[in-house]
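SEQUENCE-TO-STRUCTURE ENTRY
===========================

Subject: a protein chain together with a token-level encoding of how that chain folds.

Sequence line: the amino acid chain in single-letter code, read from start to end.

Question of interest: how does this chain fold, as expressed in backbone structure tokens?
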Amino acid sequence: MSSPLSALPASHPLHDGRTSEAPLVRAARGDRPASLPVWFMRQAGRSLPEYRASRAGTEMLDACLDPALAAEITLQPVRRHGVDAAVFFSDIVVPVLLAGIDVRIVPGRGPVLDEPIRTASDVLRLRPLEAEALAPISEAVRLVVAELGQTPLVGFGGAPYTLASYLVEGGPSKEQLRARALMRTDPHTWAALLNWCADVTGAFLRAQVEAGASVVQLFDSWAGSLSRADYQRRVAPHSRRAFDALRGLDVPKIHFGLGLAEMLDLAPGLGADVVGIDWRLPLDEANARLGGTVPLQGNIDPALLTAPWPILDAHVRDVVERGRTAPAHIVNLGHGVPPDTDPTVLTRIVELVHAL
């Protein structure tokens, strides 16, 4: 009987050894490498002047589907900051777009749909994501991995609840009132919608892994709007389904949910190997809630990226010290890099973490 690893292509960086001993991969598997790994959510793009130059005159979603451009943007923060991983430059709505949904990204606002998905008949009209539609994603990943060498690529996707929120609300929403109402008033339609979201994001993740991503992360940006009961019953099984799309591919899986402190103990049951922690909960407390058995990622407060360096330095050291209580720790922010971040600050954080 072949090992699970054999399902990865022979040329995959985990299979041929390029990234199997990388600090990020080792930490994600529960090890303590000599050098503490660090990367930043949303490091590809946003704050970098070279990103703005590369993307000048190109719409966000067009950039995501241009393999050469997406690869270049993915590589930029690795070159600049010396981070321990690249994160694939894309957007969580890309698989939704590739499945035929008319979605666009409005600068300063985010993903917007002119025709939201709100009824049973709307959900019935949703089509599966065809494998050939993912060709630009696979090609971009291959281009990145060929350049990265021993540095792993983190593939990513949006968790089903966050995707469903955009589809139902028609755009970003702070409270997800329509989505939460649909969840409770029409649970069958809700379940069908979240299964569809899980399947498209699962296919998106799988395409990235098969093309060479060494780690994946599922982002649930809006999960903090839910009660524990609703999350456990009506959302968590679908996040598990998204991760299940990777069955047979032995890659570490990270789950990051914003505002999930009270549901933290449920995260390992989703199939995650690593649990991302936002800035609200200290890592030693998060570790205690998880029984001291799960590698953690996080949890530098993004607000402090604009603070005087002595304040940020002390905060990073505190995060690292509290992270020592966990089986392993991947240093990261408690959310994404804000667009107005000074890139030199991120480079200094990387240097500090590696020195610690």
